[in-house]
Amino acid sequence: MNNIGSVLLLILLAITFVQSGYEKTMYWNDNVTWLRQHFEKTPIKNTVPAALFLILVLEVISGILCISGCIQILVNNVRTFGLYGAIFSCVTLLFLLLGQRMAKDYDGARTIVIYFIPAVMAVYWLS
Q1: pTM above 0.70, yes or no
Q2: What are the DSSP calls for 111-122, one per residue?
Q3: Interatomic CA distance for residues 75 and 57, integer angstroms
Q4: DSSP 53-100
Q5: Helix (H/G/I), strand (E/B), else coil: 37
Q6: Is 10 within 8 Å of 69 (Cβ atoms)?
Q7: 73-85 burial code (b ≥16 CB/10 A, e <16)
Q8: 39/46 Cα distance (integer angstroms)
């Protein structure tokens, strides 16, 4: 039980990214349509599908690593996959933050920071 805080943070990140990846996959066209409008005045306006795919890949990797990290901590008391999951989560959130700032969506950016804080805590606790 020494790592319960880390496990809880990894579960939070896993839920966040697995659910988000699922939404992006199941509603791809809706997401592309909405994001084209969201980013129409930014430098990435012509690369929205590629950017969305990159975010999808990062989210899926983050979610899988966080789930694997929880299992690894609970079974072997080893933190390797959890640390990688937390790091990937931070990188993913930084990409999302960059996009929100480019789109001048400051409320969206603030929401990303709310997720970033526990992700950084997970990196700190797992390293």
Answers
A1: yes
A2: HHHHHHHHHHHH
A3: 27
A4: HHHHHHHHHHHHHHHHHHHHHHHH---HHHHHHHHHHHHHHHHHHHHH
A5: helix
A6: yes
A7: beeeeebebbbbb
A8: 9
How big, in percent rounded to 5, are the helix, strand and coil portions of the chain? Answer: 85, 0, 15
Q: What are the two backbone dihedrals, phi and then psi, of residue 105, each rounded to the nearest 5 degrees?
A: -95, 85
**Contact (CB, 8 A) for 79 and 73:** yes
Query: How would residue 77 be classed by pLDDT, with cut points 50, 70 and 90?
Result: very high
pLDDT digits (tens, 9 = 90+) for 24-47: 999 999 999 999 999 999 999 999
Residue that the structure tokens 């950016």 belong to = 109
CA distance 120 to 89: 9
Q: Answer yes or no: are the C-beta atoms of 66 and 85 closer than 8 Å.
A: yes
CA distance 65 to 59: 10
